[in-house]
Write a structure and sequence with these properties.
With 232 residues, the protein is α+β, with helices and mostly antiparallel strands. Helices cover 17% and strands 28% of the residues. The strands form three sheets. Strands 1, 4, 5, 6 and 7 form a five-stranded mixed beta sheet that branches. A four-stranded mixed beta sheet has the order 11-10-9-12. It has helices at residues 26-33, 98-110, 164-167, 196-209; strands spanning 52-61, 67-73, 84-85, 88-90, 118-122, 126-128, 133-142, 156-163, 173-177, 183-189, 192-194, 220-222.
Amino acid sequence: MTHPVDVPPVGAAPGTPPAPVPPALDGLRRALADPAVDAVLPPRWRAGGRGRPSAVLLLLSDAPDPSLVFTERAGGLRNHAGQISFPGGRAECGDAGAVATALRETTEEIGLAADEVHVLGTMPAVDLSATGFDVVPVVGWWHPDAVLAPGDPREVAGVHAWPVSALADPARRVSARHAGGTTGPAWRFGELFVWGLTALLTDLLLRLGGWERPWDAGRVIEVPERFRSDRH
């Protein structure tokens, strides 16, 4: 079930008209509004409603070649330290649904106010059984008129934004071998490595936005130790 599209930003004054969707993101908007979007998520990843609710924000810029925002988790965190992720986290009592959770967490992590984000829709909820969460991916866009930076360095070590053209570049794409021998999509950007849930959602976003290009999924590499979940 997707969030209504073309909604005013959270916190906008009553009666504020929705911002026009940037042309580069209109295909993505239509894909998210299509009921068939539920089929894009492989069955083994689909949430069954048993996990604790949480949400992440896939934030794109208003540009002909939109950039997607990622965070680099601080090295001292107990879970997923140093990994590349999307802003987000667990729901709190006062959150009015997944969108509110994603926007609140984004404000806390990278300082972007909720009223600067225009929500396009949501992807199907993901079963993250390893941590006991059901994660709703919220998709939105913003006018990039400021440099994003960590809100709390104890939680976020850095903020990165890569254009969808770079994310779709086959030269940057590999398959990562996970614990247990399974593989999934991954990216290499210099010393940074994107894998796991973040890579899965990035892969789906490229597909829904019409940006995906053929790439060699048979090029399998081990997850670098710095980015592994079990390194502590």
